[in-house]
Amino acid sequence: MSATPVNDNGKMWTGSSTAWDVACILAREYDWHGAGTCCPLQPGSESSWKGSYSLNNGQRVAEADARAIAEALDAALADTPDSPDEGWLLSGAGRAHLRNLIEFCREGSFRVF
Fold this sequence. Notes:
The protein is of the alpha+beta class.
C-alpha cells in the first residue's frame, strides 16, 4: 500500500505507507503532537473518523500540523548523524527522501491518498 500526500496545488510526496508511518513516528519522537486529521473524502465516514494519519483515504492534515511535522523532522535530521546504523530513513537516500517530505510539509495542508 502506498501513502501519497498531495497538497492543494497538486504537488505530491511519494513514499510507501511504511515510510510515511515511520516519518510520523520519528516526528512524534521529536515532540510533534498531531492534532489529528480531518475526515477523508469518503461519504459516510464522517461519524466514525478518528483522525488517523496511517490510512490513505484522503484525510486532510491541517496547515499548522503539517508545519509542525516539518519542524519535528528537521530537528530529527539535525540531531541524527548520517549513519546506516540509524536505519534507511536516516541515512543516505532516506535522508534526502525525508528532506523532500520536510519541504512538502512546510508548504501547508495536504491530503493523504
